[in-house]
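Lecture notes, structural biology module. Today: joint structure prediction for complexes of two components.
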Amino acid sequence: MMLHAQSTFPTNEGERVKYNAYIEMPRAYISGVSVLLKEGDVIKGSLFNEFGMTALDFTYDPKRQKVKLHHVVKMMDKWYIRRVVRKDMVQLMRCLQKGETQYNNERRHINYQFIPIEHEVTK
Amino acid sequence: MGWGDVYCTRLYVNSEIKMKKGLFIIYLLLTAHVTLMAQQSETQIRQKISQIASSMKTMQCDFIQTKHLKMLNDEMVSKGRMYYQQGNRLRWEYTSPYTYTFIINDDKVLLKNSQRNDVIDVNKNKVFKEIARIMMNSVVGNCLNDEKSFKSSLSVSGGAWVATLLPQRKDMKQMFQKIVLHFSQKQAMVTQVELIEKNGDRTIIDLKNIRTNEAISTNMFTIR
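The predicted structure, tokenised, for the full assembly:
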């Protein structure tokens, strides 16, 4: 899916992009919200469910093409899950940079879909 | 210094010790009285909240959820509507900026977003059973008396009763540092739920336009 009308990735200092996030796995499904923020040389990111419970906090370094996981919810905090998430997030970030809103890990059958939220709500 | 001076000094010291003892006893009595008063009123508050919760047949309200992201120094606001019916029925519906509906009806849970619907049997899913139980109990304030799940304390702040709940169950401890419930003193009902996570993120849910004991269509809790 390509989106041209709106930004799919933060490129300017302090810019934020919020997404509806859907992650489909062979035996599980996660949905929620993700926020990406451009700060200095890195992109700071967070993924949480609709109720606000954080699953991941990470930073993405576009130059080095690396993702560092800062917080992973306990039930996902296993070395083999971290490894997959880290690699997949790099690929997903690259897709978002190109304006694509989807990344499919064909080997593990995991589909990531991050669709930018058009209208923000204020209190 | 003569014997007379020594005697006077001893008398003075003795009377000072007696006075200090007396003051200490008064202090102890006052402290005990204040503690007893606090305990009594805390018990009364708990009873009142419990009484209101058990008399609440239905509840409906709007809610504003504000998620504070510590690492990004940002917040995400979402809005929606909530319906509760005594007997394990809850509809929690986000309307903006995303649509997402969570319905609990006895032992079934429906998760519905713009892409799919999922029905979960809570008896086969321990995590969802916990989530469903906590959500139902938080909304009406029953969490306060759930001693197996939470160690709770009560305080008064700005015209509200504030209950601080420290999770006791392992799975809850992994997710939350604490849960803070704000009760309106006038209605003895929850008006704000604050969830503080392990990573320092906070989610504040403000309940607005609360209406109780009005009929709610059973369709609101239908799971298909």
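Point to remember: The first strand of chain B starts at residue 58 and ends at 69.
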